[in-house]
Each structure stands twice: as structure tokens, then as C-alpha cells.
Amino acid sequence: MDDLGRAVAVPETVRRIVSLVPSLTESVAATVPEALVGATDWCSHPADLDVARVKGTKNPDLEAIRKLRPDVVLANAEENRLADLEALRAAGIAVWVTKIETLDEAFVSLDRMFTYACRTGRPAWLDAAEAAWRTATADGRRRTAIIPIWRRPWMVVGRDTFTGDVLKRLGVDNLYAGHADRYPKIPLPELVEHRPELVVLPDEPYAFSATDGPECFPGSTCALVSGRLLTWYGPSLVEAPERLRRDLGG
Hints:
With about 250 residues, the protein is α/β, with parallel strands linked by helices. Helix content is about 30%, strand content about 15%. It has nine helices and eleven strands. The chain has a five-stranded parallel β-sheet with strand order 3-2-1-4-5, with helices on both faces. A four-stranded parallel β-sheet has the order 9-6-10-11. It has a two-stranded antiparallel ribbon with strand order 7-8.
């Protein structure tokens, strides 16, 4: 069963995989690259990825996926639309859905995905990632932060998110962790009024930069970080704790 508890009829041997999630694409490419035959247009890692493209995570080309004859399609409960996944299932394609909101869930989910959906062994990089985060403890100092992910309108990280859990492990507490929404829209004046100790500005999904974002939060320390290191669950988890701690100023 996948992370949603749904039985998935994965063949005993998996030779053709389509991934609809950038971080899962990178994970498969680093583990069984010969099996990866399709990925979304947003799948940017590894940089030399040479597979068929099947449009986006929210608007995949279902016919193109069918023509690739995948043994399994990898998806995510947050990234992909249920209607698209149901259409693939209706076409007789095995669809494996991950659901990841914490680091611990990421480690368990990825292990299960490779074992049962990809029919391969546990990758060495997953062991390295767990080891890296096992020793990635905060230095005792805790800071309160807001984590914008978009502007026009302003949106921030809210409750129950992988991003929030990653930051918590590094001593950064999300000011909006108790919000009813996972990615609430918050007017900029309200964000500024909180005067957070830290504003974490990732470069995706919105490409915040030194000249686009920090100027909106006078008096607050702004940390520009890699969105991939903050939000992706895959090989990037190996380097994420050290690089994020440095970029967060911890």
C-alpha cells in the first residue's frame, strides 16, 4: 500500500518509471536512472536529466504518460491532482502516492517507495541523509520566523508542512505553524507588524532574491535559502542541514 493506504498493483519487476514530482524524480535518477523514462517539465535535477517530459505537476499530459507504458507512476498527495491520478489508474497504470509532511515521514516514505514501488534496494544516499539529520540539532538558540513562498498575493508556510519541520529541526519556529491553512494568504502589513526575528526567503516556488523580497521587511533579518534544500525530499537531504544552517545564520 502507498502512503495513503491504497493498494497498488506494482509489477514484480519495474523497468519503466514516470515521476510527477521533482524531488522524487531526482531520487529515482540518483538510484535507478535506467528505469526513469518520464518526468515533469519542472523536474530540474539532475541537471543532465534526459527523459520524456510530460508537462507539469498540476497539468500532466496523461496521453503522453500512457504512451510511455510505465510500470508505475510516482506522485504526491500535495503536488498532484486526484483527478489526474484517477485517470491514470482508470487506464490500468499503477500509481504510487507519497504523503510527506515531516522529515521522519520522508525517510519512511522514500524507503517504502524504493522497496515496493520501484522494486529496488534502499539507496545509500538515504542512509547518508538520515545520518546527516540525526546530528543536525539546533545550537540551543530558537528564533521565530515567517516563511513567505509567494508575493502578489503574499503567501506563507502554515501548519503541517515539511518545510516547517525542517526549520524546526534547525531551531527556527514558524510563526504561522498554528494557522488553519497550510499555505495562508497574509497581507504584507500583517507580516511586517509581527516583526519576526527571521524572514526565510526561498528561491522557489517564488524566486525571492537579494533585490526581491528583503526590502519588504525592514528591521527583520532576512535569510535567502535554496528552495530545493528546504522543500525537496531526496538526495538534497544529505547536504541540506549544513547548508541551511549556514544560510539561516545558525
